[in-house]
Amino acid sequence: MLALSVPGVLGVHDLRAEYVGSDTVHAGMHIVVPRATPIEEADHIAHEVEEKVHAGLSSGYCFIHVDPAEPAAKLLIEPEDIGAMK
Considering the entire predicted model, what is its pTM? Predict the structure, then answer.
C-alpha cells in the first residue's frame, strides 16, 4: 500500500474509495503514527501520504485522518506475581 511506504506510518485502517467519474477516485483513510508525534510532524506525514495517493491513483480527492498508535498493552498481572503463582 502506498501509505505504508511513507516514513512514520505504522498502519492504515478504514480505507474508503469511490469512483466519481470514469477515471476519478475519491479516497479516504486513517493512518497510524507513533504516539507523541508532534502535530507538525504528523501533518507532514499526512501530506506525504496524500501526495503518494494522488500520484499513484490519480485521485480527485483524498482525506487523511491521523491516529496515534495505541499504547502498549497493559499487563493484568504484574511479572512478580506470575513467579509467586508457580
Answer: 0.76
